[in-house]
Specification:
Layout (H helix, E strand, L loop, with lengths): L1 E9 L17 H13 L6 E2 L8 E11 L5 H11 L4 E9 L11 E9 L13 E2 L6 H9 L3 E4 L14 E12 L2 E8 L6 H13 L7 H8 L14 E7 L1
Helix pairs in contact: 1-2, 3-4
């Protein structure tokens, strides 16, 4: 059996997230498994680096699988792109060591959250940006983000109810910059909890709207309570940009 690693790009708008579910076939993982199982002529399991939520997009999701196919990685990529729906695509493919694991070997991830900050709509990008009409205070959001950088217990920034796993994570950087009417939040860290990026974004947007002070982030982290943080930002503005190895 060979191990193949691929980079996957997808628009998550019409899917129920990445992870396969017993109640539906409408997930990214399941769509990929259906195509590659057809190629393999046997059931084939796909593993991904991250489990994106329903409606979240990806530019650089990484997958791996084991295969007995004699096709080259490039031929497998071409095969998949012929049969996958138009909102899912393979952009890179290579054969790797059999011990490679897309999730377990990942050292970190970069996510980008896009906000359209204007009264004028962005029709063509509406599926990929969260629109806010009121002006956002960029400097205050940057100050608030500075308190999130570093190693902290991010229990207050996750919707996960189970507390068996550690909620300590390290945020390497948060960059916030404007591109005309678009504001991008770029998060780089060793890993992210369930809904963590979207809750951090919702909290920073509250600061940008003047609903909170930048230093409130410190007390939110110390509280460890989800209700102290801001709202869950909509899924459509988020994209898994890169997985680091």
């Amino acid at each position: 059996m060979r191990t193949v690693k691929m980079k996957v790009e997808y628009e998550g708008t019409r899917y129920n997230g990445w992870q396969r579910q017993s109640s539906t076939e409408n997930t990214i993982q399941k769509k990929l498994e259906m195509v590659f199982s057809k190629m393999e002529r046997a059931p084939l399991e796909i593993q991904g680096a991250g489990r994106t939520d329903a409606g979240v997009h990806a530019k650089g999701q990484i997958i791996h699988f084991h295969t007995s196919s004699e096709k080259s990685p490039e031929e497998m990529m071409d095969y998949a792109n012929e049969y996958l729906p138009m909102d899912i695509g393979i952009t890179e493919a290579e054969e790797v060591h059999h011990r490679f694991h897309s999730r377990l070997n990942a050292k970190g991830k970069t996510y980008i959250y896009r906000v359209w900050n204007s009264k004028v709509p962005n029709v063509l990008d509406r599926k990929f940006v969260h629109r806010i009409l009121e002006p956002l205070k960029l400097s205050e959001m940057k100050e608030g983000a500075s308190y999130l950088i570093g190693t902290h217990d991010f229990q207050a920034f996750t919707s996960a109810k189970k507390k068996k796993k550690s909620t300590i994570r390290t945020i390497e950087s948060i960059k916030i910059h404007s591109l005309g009417d678009e504001i991008q939040f770029i998060y780089k860290g060793d890993g992210f909890l369930y809904h963590m990026v979207r809750i951090m974004t919702g909290t920073l947007l509250d600061i940008g709207l003047g609903k909170r002070e930048p230093r409130d982030i410190e007390s939110i982290i110390k509280s460890g309570r989800r209700e102290k943080a801001g709202p869950l930002a909509p899924a459509n503005g988020l994209v898994l940009w890169e997985v680091h190895y």
